[in-house]
Amino acid sequence: DWANAMEYAFGISAKELIGDINELTGVLYGLGMSAKDTALGSENILMMSRYLAFMGAAGGDTNAVMTKLVSGMKGMTQAIDDLGLSVRDAQMDAFLKSLKAQGGEFANIATDFSSLNEQARVYVRYASLIDQFTRNYDITNFADALTTVTGRMQILRQSVNSLVTTLGTGLTKVLANLATYLIPVIKLIEQL
Fold first, then answer.
1. pLDDT tens-digit profile of 10-53?
2. What H or E segment, with its residue span, contains residue 128?
3. Torsion-angle region of 58 (φ positive above 0: left; ψ -120 to 50: alpha; else: beta)
4. Rounded to the nearest 5 degrees, what angle is found at the Cα of 54, between the Cα atoms of 158 and 80?
């Protein structure tokens, strides 16, 4: 059901989404996430990658964005910086300090990222990426885009941009010619 809903949202096949989820699940499990946490973690990272690509990160190439996020989960800082997200030690320390300041279940949390074992670091990177993503990006714009013809066309445009990046520029001329005929039709539909 989740993959089918995402197929509608992103215009890519549920089969491709399931393949990406399976790949992410393997990566996260290999990094030390528990089996029960990898499913949700994979869905969240996949959603982040699709949204960031929709917003034009890495030229709209969902595969490139996904690779950058996975690299970030592995602690490779430069790969993820251009997405407006950070997994640098200073960022992780600041995130841990903000958790500790919340008190409650986080009252006794360590605030030195470098002192954590690798499994704990993976969870901190994941939680920090989710936190940064939700603070830095207004995903309601994306959700709203799904409810209008213009918004869906913008999603389609981003999907086409990603496709062109993947397949090469040979396809660009064909799509440009097709778009010339589609734009008047879309404008007519919007007026109805």
1. 556 677 778 888 888 999 999 999 988 998 889 889 888 888 88
2. helix 118-136
3. left
4. 125
